[in-house]
Amino acid sequence: MKDAEKIRQILMQSRVRSREQIDSLYASEEISFEELNERITAFILAKFMLDRDECTGTDFQKLSELSLSKTMNISPELVKEFDTARSCAGATSAIAKKTLLYLAIQKALGIELAAEKTPKVHTFEEFTELVWDGMKESDLWRPKLKE
What we know:
The chain is mainly α. The protein has one domain (2-146). It is 62% helix and 3% strand. The protein is built from six helices and two strands; from the N terminus they run H-E-H-H-H-H-H-E. The protein has helices spanning 2-27, 33-47, 60-72, 76-82, 93-109, 124-136, and strands at residues 31-32, 145-146. Strands 1-2 form a two-stranded parallel sheet. The N and C termini lie far apart (50 Å).
């Protein structure tokens, strides 16, 4: 039971940390691209249950694998080896994690991300650009964006 409680605590902390980033954006009167990038990065790390000191970059694939490695308590090399797409859909766990992140940010901010651009996103900054563009299309967010 201790393991189940520990997992529950980790999930709750992840939810709280990611929500704090979204709440901060809603509370902001003006949002620069740099601030958005900082908040989106913190949101992603919270959702991936990672801390900044665990990350050496902002590549989605590598950080998805690191997150899976951490949550499954196995090495990143094993994640790469065993998480190859074998279904006809061709979706790995890392791709599924990225897709769920896209859905979470759309829901949290009430925006739409350009579907045709999402496959081209490989880094957090590219993701922030996608979110920024989605926010520019929103009546709620557009007035807050500081170009």
